[in-house]
Amino acid sequence: MTRKPDQVDFHCHLDLYPDLATAIAICESSRTATLAVTTTPKAFRRNIQLARSSEFVRVALGLHPHLAEDRQGELLLFEALLPETRYVGEIGLDAGPRYYRSMPTQEMVFRKILSMCATSGGKILSVHSVRTAGRVLDHIDECLPRDRGKVVLHWFSGSAAEASRAVQAGCYFSVNQAMLEKPRGREIVAQLPLDRILTETDGPFVDIDGGPVTPGGVLPTIKSLAALSELATADMANQLIRNWIKLVS
Question: Domains plus CATH for the chain?
Fold first, then answer.
């Protein structure tokens, strides 16, 4: 990346929009530093091929916790592909009603991926932690030393104590507009250090104005964060870019 981005979308499922190439082009035209997360190792290759010439889009290798039970057989492929990217995601745990029964498999998959990242070193992880923030942090503590990788907690919904623990562990947090529209989400974000916050869309799973958020469509989130922090929008935007630069440097 030779030019400085104008904004950051650190968690977006570009390949789940109707046309991946168009989604990448939108991020390019808006100069949005975008992390294109994937949900299975088999999805990675197409993403990396289409984004190879992109200035602002980076592709993460993922194995989503919702798919851990069915796709655990792709861990060998995950390990083979890991040298091709610095970024890993979407990975993590989910103890929601539909997925808690697969928790043993989720935890096995998550720990194996964390260990792979620790062995490789230098990876940046986008991590899902629905109803599992404490367990996610436990596994990170046990499997990924702080000097072997960096963690960004995506759409964090843990407790205040868990947020504080994550901050102490060196984690960043990627925040979307849906989080900031709820009092609970605003309470969580308000307690986070400004220098640990990034923006995300989690597109196409977040709706804005009745339809899926546009890839890189983080301006409403920047404005909401600015209001929450009593900063000018431009100052918040600059802070977020500084945070991203520090993360990826």
Answer: 7-248 (3.20.20.140)
